[in-house]
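Troubleshooting entry. The earlier prediction with pantoate gave an output that would not parse, so I re-checked the input for stray whitespace and re-submitted. Clean input:
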Amino acid sequence: MQIHTTIDSLRRARAHAGRLAFVPTMGNLHEGHIALMRQAGEHADAVIASIFVNRLQFGPSEDFDTYPRTFAADCEMLEAAGVEHLFAPDEAVMYPTRQTYHVEPDPAQATALEGAHRAGHFRGVATVVLKLLNIVQPNVALFGKKDYQQLMVLRNMVAQMALPVDIVAGETVRAEDGLALSSRNRYLSATERTEAVRLSRCLNHIRDAVRGGDHDFDALERAAMAELATHHWQPDYVAVRRQCDLQAPGDPKDALVVLAAARLGTTRLIDNLEI
Ligand code: PAF
């Protein structure tokens, strides 16, 4: 695997890479990322991953400083997955001057759900992803469905800005008990890790209920929030939404998704299930 720390080095390699699939990450890789790398290989001649912990998408009281940085282990996993190129810039490469131009996603889509609890998060994500796409110039870029709202915001950015890249979604990878894999799972204590599965269980319960004909979404959401709270979680939201734009369901034919975010101890977990 070639590791590029500068834009020049990456661009020289890009010129000879043929059809290129790109998987941007913030490192601390797990099997969910590796599944995306393998999926990326099906779309291109070569796969490029990036590792960059993007300060712009963290709020002032969030975990930017403590976000796990595990570069050597990440490189081993990428090598083993057959990834050809890694772009691993530092802040001076990505933000040589203070970033004063930003992508402002549609507030209707970026200030609900995650956006309501993480002000400016999607602006930071969209800005760095636009910049990464401009640097890497891939034919296809892959994002996991675990960050469902991020995927929607980025799809819309690419469509509305007519960026010459196809966006492909990867399925969420789960631990055996159902917990969605996430870099933040490593913050959980052993007891919290056992409890953490409750989040996906609540989502499964709502999915089964809706599939079984229960369309009282408010009641289902409230019951799940109450169950989480009873077990000492601090839920931010449990919400049944339309898949297409994450707005409240209207037409019974809408394809739906249930999304949730909740804090267990000091760790904030998110998850979702398409219904
Ligand atoms: O999903 C992530 O890891 C990040 O939000 C991304 C897309 C790499 C942008 O920093």
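This one parsed fine. The first strand starts at residue 2 and ends at 4.
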